[in-house]
Amino acid sequence: MAAKKPKHLDVIIAGFGGQGVLLIGNLLAYAGMNAGLNVTYIPVYGAEMRGGTANCTVILSAEDIGSPIVHRPQSAIIMNRPSLDKFQPRLLDKGVQIVNSSLIEPRLADTKRAKSVLVPCNGIADKLGNSRMANMVALGAFVAATQIVPLAA
Known about the structure:
- With about 150 residues, the chain is an alpha/beta fold.
- It has a single domain (about 10-145), classed as Pyruvate-ferredoxin oxidoreductase, PFOR, domain III (Pyruvate-ferredoxin Oxidoreductase, domain 3, 3-Layer(aba) Sandwich).
- About 25% of the residues lie in helices and about 25% in strands.
- It has helices at about 20-35, 80-85, 120-130, 135-145; strands at about 10-15, 40-45, 55-60, 75-80, 95-100, 115-120.
- A six-stranded mixed sheet has the order 2-3-1-4-5-6, sandwiched between helices.
- Strand 4, helix 2 and strand 5 (about 95-100) form a beta-alpha-beta unit.
- The longest helix is centred in the first third of the chain and has 14 residues, at about 20-35.
- The radius of gyration is 14 Å and the shape is globular.
- The two termini are about 25 Å apart.
- The model has no long low-confidence stretch (mean pLDDT about 95).
């Protein structure tokens, strides 16, 4: 049985500067718009950019969005250990998190409280021939796990 497509989903995407977390947030927001959803996108990054922390929030909804602020997300894409430490505790119970198991030990993912999809994003990107594509691997895993937008979007 296929998973039911959610009518509303908010996500925090987090990693360090240079991993492309803001890019995949932007792409997810555009995919939501292409799918006819209401969308918000808020990027957050430190002054140091590459190597510093970076995250963004995206809300995708078939209904009006009351506030663009996400405190307790339903889902997360977590690309590195510091981001896991910061954002995993904020994830709602029974949420979905994509965890980059190339940079995060799988045992650290909270599999009891949330659906944790462990994806070796960097390893897959390396096998595809471009280590900078780890973010796209994570985005693909997120779209497959949540079905919030069609892959064609």
